[in-house]
Design goal:
The chain has strands at 3-7, 10-13, 18-25, 32-39, 46-52, 58-60, 68-73, 78-83, 92-100, 115-116, 120-125. It is mainly beta and 126 residues long.
């Protein structure tokens, strides 16, 4: 059974930092891209950042560039999202996703070979 399990969310003041983790298990993710989406109340799901599992190439949306860093540990099958200089508008449930492909800009979809985690809440107080 393939699982993506997120952790690391919480409550932090504006300007603070959090590191999210996504532990992947159940299959090899070679040939996949991994990434993070977020869903805030009243808003559509938003892609945040992605990383190609094999090469480590990354992609960030403009709103998080320079503040967030995505990385992976192949040995631990874990993807991380280091979030610095957090803002109130970063408040959301953050979801880890895995999709087959090479482009680290993941698509908002539910494909037959896509996988999603259960989400972790990030709350930034202003």
């Amino acid at each position: 059974q393939v699982r993506l399990v997120e952790s690391g969310g919480g409550l932090v003041q504006a300007g603070g930092s959090l590191r999210l983790s996504c532990a992947a298990s159940g299959r090899s993710f070679s040939g996949y891209v991994m990434g993070w989406f977020r869903l805030a109340p009243g808003k559509e799901r938003e892609f945040v950042s992605g990383i190609r599992w094999s090469s480590g190439s990354t992609y960030y949306v403009d709103s998080v560039k320079g503040r967030f860093t995505i990385s992976r540990d192949n040995a631990k099958s874990t993807v991380y999202l280091q979030m610095n200089s957090l803002k109130a508008e970063d408040t959301a449930v953050y979801y880890c996703a895995a999709q087959p492909g090479e482009n680290p800009r993941l698509a908002a979809r539910w494909g037959p070979r896509d996988y999603w985690g259960q989400g972790t809440q990030v709350t930034v107080s202003s």
